[in-house]
Amino acid sequence: MDWVDRGLCRTQPERMFAEGAAQNEAKTVCFKCPVQLDCLAYALDHREEHGVWGAMTERERRSLLRRRPGVASWAEVFRAGTTHREPELEPEPVRVSRPGRAPAIPAAEVAKLRAVSA
Ligand code: SF4
């Protein structure tokens, strides 16, 4: 996990284990982080149950894992990047939540997942 030392949260990791609305603030750090995909792949592959990793909350990761049960290695999927498309990564419609609430997976994150699987 050499990427850990390059993570923007390395000096304040407790910030990534915020609850509720503070998770959205934590995610803004991830969006600028140079190791976001390494971090997200680690959390998905190791079924991290708590905290914000790679700009996804535990709830969002659980949802993604439920929708993509066939992915054995997210690290492999992200490494493959633009070289080939995984059939199970075909984009799904973004679920729109009720007005005033953030979507289950923000559109920006969906776009990033689409970009790495394109
Ligand atoms: S992506 Fe977020 S949680 Fe992961 S190392 Fe970077 S800042 Fe920390």
Automatic annotation (TrEMBL):
<feature type="domain" description="4Fe-4S Wbl-type">
    <location>
        <begin position="8"/>
        <end position="63"/>
    </location>
</feature>
<keyword id="KW-0805">Transcription regulation</keyword>
<keyword id="KW-1015">Disulfide bond</keyword>
<keyword id="KW-0963">Cytoplasm</keyword>
<feature type="binding site">
    <location>
        <position position="30"/>
    </location>
    <ligand>
        <name>[4Fe-4S] cluster</name>
    </ligand>
</feature>
<feature type="binding site">
    <location>
        <position position="9"/>
    </location>
    <ligand>
        <name>[4Fe-4S] cluster</name>
    </ligand>
</feature>
<keyword id="KW-0004">4Fe-4S</keyword>
<protein>
    <recommendedName>
        <fullName>Transcriptional regulator WhiB</fullName>
    </recommendedName>
</protein>
<keyword id="KW-0238">DNA-binding</keyword>
<keyword id="KW-0479">Metal-binding</keyword>
<keyword id="KW-0804">Transcription</keyword>
<feature type="binding site">
    <location>
        <position position="39"/>
    </location>
    <ligand>
        <name>[4Fe-4S] cluster</name>
    </ligand>
</feature>
<dbReference type="InterPro" id="IPR003482">
    <property type="entry name" value="Whib"/>
</dbReference>
<comment type="similarity">
    <text>Belongs to the WhiB family.</text>
</comment>
<keyword id="KW-0408">Iron</keyword>
<feature type="binding site">
    <location>
        <position position="33"/>
    </location>
    <ligand>
        <name>[4Fe-4S] cluster</name>
    </ligand>
</feature>
<dbReference type="InterPro" id="IPR034768">
    <property type="entry name" value="4FE4S_WBL"/>
</dbReference>
<dbReference type="Pfam" id="PF02467">
    <property type="entry name" value="Whib"/>
</dbReference>
<keyword id="KW-0411">Iron-sulfur</keyword>
<comment type="function">
    <text>Acts as a transcriptional regulator. Probably redox-responsive. The apo- but not holo-form probably binds DNA.</text>
</comment>
